[in-house]
Design brief:
Largest sheet: none
Distance between the termini: 34 Å
Number of strands: 0
Mean pLDDT: 89
Order of helices and strands: HHHHHHHHHHH
Helix content: over 70%
Radius of gyration: 18 Å
CATH architecture of the largest domain: Alpha Horseshoe
CATH superfamily of the largest domain: Tetratricopeptide repeat domain
Number of domains: 2
Number of helices: 11
Strand content: under 5%
Length: about 200
C-alpha cells in the first residue's frame, strides 16, 4: 500500500521526496565510472560524476572529480558552479566564491539563480555587510520559486538567522499558493517542507 501511494504521489501529487532519485544517481555514477576507465577524453565524464556526487552530498569526492574536469575543460559554467558549491560546503570559502562568480560571469543565468544561494551562505559565514547579502537576495527574487526560497531559508537557519529563515519559508508558501496548478506538483514538496520548518521554528 505504501509503495502504491508513493508511485501515485510521484506521478500526480509531489508531496513526498523522490525516493528513487538517490538510487538512480548512484547507478549513474557507477556507470560513468566504468565509462571513465576507457574514455580517451574524460573531461565531460569527470564533470558528470562530480556534479552527481555534489548533488548527493559527497562534497569531497565531487570536488576531486570536478577539479580534474576543470583542468581539462576551461570556461565551463556548470563545472565552476558545482566546484563552487563543493568548496563552500567544505569550508574553502574564498575558492568557492571565486568559482561561483566565475560560473556567473560565463553564464549569468547558470542553474536558475542557485549560485546566489551559496554566495549568501558565503556572506553569512564571513559576516559580510547586509548590503552585500541584500544584493544577492535581489537576484534570488528574480528567480523566486518555492525551491530557491526554501533552500535560502535552510541556509539562513543553519547560520543562525532564524527570523530571516522564517521569512524565506513564508515566501516559499506565498509563491506556491499563487502558482498555476500545472507547476504545483513540482513545487509541492518544498512548500510542505517550508510549512513544517515555519511551524517548527515557531
Amino acid at each position: 500500500m505504501v509503495i502504491v501511494y508513493a508511485i501515485i504521489d510521484r506521478r500526480y501529487i509531489g508531496a513526498l521526496p523522490d525516493f528513487i532519485k538517490p538510487l538512480s544517481r548512484w547507478r549513474k555514477i557507477a556507470k560513468l565510472k566504468r565509462e571513465l576507465e576507457f574514455s580517451p577524453s574524460p573531461g565531460h565524464i569527470l564533470y558528470q560524476i562530480g556534479a552527481l556526487q555534489v548533488e548527493s552530498g559527497n562534497m569531497q569526492e565531487g570536488r576531486q572529480h570536478l577539479e580534474k574536469a576543470h583542468d581539462l575543460i576551461q570556461e565551463h559554467p556548470d563545472i565552476e558552479y558545482y566546484l563552487g558549491v563543493a568548496r563552500i560546503r567544505m569550508g574553502e570559502l574564498e575558492l568557492g566564491k571565486e568559482a561561483l562568480e566565475s560560473a556567473l560571469k560565463i553564464n549569468p543565468k547558470i542553474q536558475y539563480g542557485f549560485p546566489y544561494v551559496y554566495l549568501i551562505e558565503y556572506s553569512l559565514k564571513k559576516e559580510e555587510h547586509r548590503e552585500q547579502i541584500g544584493a544577492y537576495m535581489e537576484k534570488i527574487f528574480e528567480y523566486g520559486n518555492p525551491k530557491i526560497y526554501y533552500e535560502v531559508g535552510v541556509v539562513f537557519h543553519k547560520e543562525g538567522y532564524v527570523k530571516e529563515a522564517r521569512e524565506m519559508f513564508q515566501k516559499a508558501l506565498v509563491i506556491f499558493r499563487s502558482s498555476p496548478s500545472f507547476l504545483r506538483k513540482q513545487q509541492r514538496y518544498y512548500a510542505i517542507m517550508s510549512k513544517i520548518r515555519s511551524i517548527w521554528q515557531g
